[in-house]
Specification:
By secondary structure, this protein is of the alpha/beta class. It has 10 helices and 8 strands. The chain has an 8-stranded parallel β-barrel with strand order 1-2-3-4-5-6-7-8, surrounded by 6 helices. Strand 7 (about 155-160), helix 8 (about 165-170) and strand 8 form a beta-alpha-beta unit.
Length: about 200
């Protein structure tokens, strides 16, 4: 894991305010996943997030908005399969921006690998309450299969993962675990992030 740019724990947040709450706690990798917003608002949110991450030594990953990522100087973008199909990969590469790509099937994995990403994400590993998923839970065996297929490339597991489940996911072959609902829906998100960070401290050893 440590040879990768990603930390073993990878929270995903909906806006810069959430990011500013959580990154100072010790988060080392974070994804900014904005919903519908104007290009100006997206740029503002990314710029704010970049400033926070710079102060705290955290890697920012921008979800989907690759044009705004280029405009603001962000250096890491995560794309889903539909966004990948529409993205200008040459423009992204020209700026030295690294890519993470979502995958749910072998066909999608082949498409992702052709784009030469810095990491591949697999999900949902377990069932998740975040949204109705087109894909059934992948399970730990699929995590191991993906890692065999991608070799030294970083693998991010996502979907229904908790601090209690995370050790088994890493043992199965994931280099990092991403979380959203586990802390966002918690009665005390900051306390839950601290539980995650305590696990991450041990997992990095």
């Amino acid at each position: 894991m440590r040879q990768h740019l990603l930390d073993v724990f990878y929270p995903i947040v909906p806006d810069a305010d959430w990011l500013a709450r959580l990154v100072p706690l010790g988060v080392r990798t974070v994804q900014l996943r904005l919903k519908e917003a104007s290009p100006q608002e997206v740029r503002r949110q990314i710029e704010t997030s970049l400033a926070v991450c710079s102060r705290h030594g955290c890697q920012l990953i921008v979800n989907d908005y690759w044009r705004e990522a280029i405009a603001t100087g962000a250096d890491f973008v995560h794309l889903g399969q539909e966004d990948l199909a529409a993205a200008d990969l040459a423009a992204i590469r020209a700026k030295g921006i690294r890519l993470g790509i979502s995958t749910h099937s072998l066909e999608e994995l082949d498409i992702a690998l052709a784009a030469e990403p810095a990491y591949v994400a697999l999900g949902p590993v377990f069932s998740t309450q975040l949204k109705v998923m087109k894909w059934a839970p992948q399970g730990l065996e699929r995590v191991s299969e993906w890692k065999r297929r991608i070799g030294n490339l970083a693998l991010v597991a996502i979907g229904g993962i908790t601090p209690e489940r995370a050790p088994a996911v890493i043992e199965a072959g994931a280099d990092a675990v991403a979380a959203i609902t586990d802390f966002m829906a918690h009665k005390d998100p900051v306390a839950r992030i601290k539980v995650w960070l305590a696990w991450a401290d041990k997992a990095r050893l």
